[in-house]
Design a protein that fits this description.
Layout: H1 2-25, E1 55-59, E2 67-70, E3 73-85, E4 92-104, E5 110-119, E6 122-131, E7 135-140, E8 154-163, E9 175-180, E10 183-188, E11 198-206, E12 209-220, E13 229-233, E14 242-248
């Protein structure tokens, strides 16, 4: 009995460690949990934001706004933003911080990317997580630096890059996810009990663009019995400005 117990504990610890490493790698903050109540994939094309809580003033880069940074990541534009700062999960209201819109012009699903921009000698840093192929994402300088008024020259490079080894999935054959404001309803439709913890990951989304490098992770602790629905409080979830990205779940043999 002791050997079997210790073996089970070892397996459980390995699963926990793997999940923790995965979440740490893509810097998912476990304090938010939001998204649309449908499980459709994102349709991502850039249009102007209709979020009334934000103002954005484009900044012209005089030596050319669009730049290829490597790994298929392209800088499309930068702007001075006043509004909600998402990257640290605080949703604090700030003024005149720098945003940068990137395009994943590749067929690879980005798990994590760290990008450095140098604008006339001033360094800005951005972190992107969970970015589908051929999609736009607008991220904000992680150090909350004030945006420049004018930029003569800008250079950028990808400092770190990790791609998903497998395309992320919502596991729609296992889970039915619906939503209300700040709430996710997760139903187990697999026909069997799911006893392991798993995570639902979502991002802010507005007018065809993923907003913020951050990806929120909602833990479903203890799994869900067959046919049952788990009601989860999702503090950062908005039915209008959120999108489900994937369910981090791995079936156990």
């Amino acid at each position: 009995m002791k050997k079997k117990t210790s073996k089970k504990i070892g397996i459980a610890l390995a699963i926990i460690a793997a999940a923790a490493a995965f979440l740490a790698l893509i810097t998912l903050l476990t304090l938010g949990e939001q998204n649309r109540g449908n499980n459709s994939g994102p349709t991502l094309s850039p249009t102007a934001s209709d979020n009334p809580a934000e103002t954005s003033v484009p900044i012209v880069i005089e030596d050319g706004s669009e730049k290829s940074l490597g790994y298929g990541i392209e800088l499309k534009n930068i702007a001075s933003v006043s509004g909600i700062y998402y990257e640290d999960g605080s949703n604090a209201m700030l003024t005149d911080f720098l945003s940068a819109t990137f395009y994943n012009n590749s067929d690879t699903y980005i798990q994590y990317a760290a990008i450095r921009l140098n604008c006339d000698g001033v360094e800005y840093n951005f972190e992107l997580s969970v970015v589908p192929p051929k999609s736009y994402i607008r991220a904000f300088d992680k150090n909350k630096k004030s945006a420049p008024v004018r930029v003569v020259s800008a250079k950028g490079e990808v400092m770190q890059y990790v791609a998903f080894s497998e395309t992320p999935s919502l596991h729609e054959d296992l889970f039915e996810i619906t939503a209300a404001e700040n709430v996710l309803y997760v139903k187990n439709i697999s026909g069997k009990d799911i006893t392991e913890d798993f995570y639902i990951c979502y991002k802010n989304y507005d007018s065809g663009i993923l907003i913020g490098g951050i990806c929120y992770s909602l833990k479903i602790e203890g799994g869900i019995a067959a046919g049952e629905t788990y009601t989860a409080y999702a503090r950062h979830f908005s039915t209008r400005y959120s999108m489900l990205m994937f369910v981090n779940y791995h079936e156990q043999d």
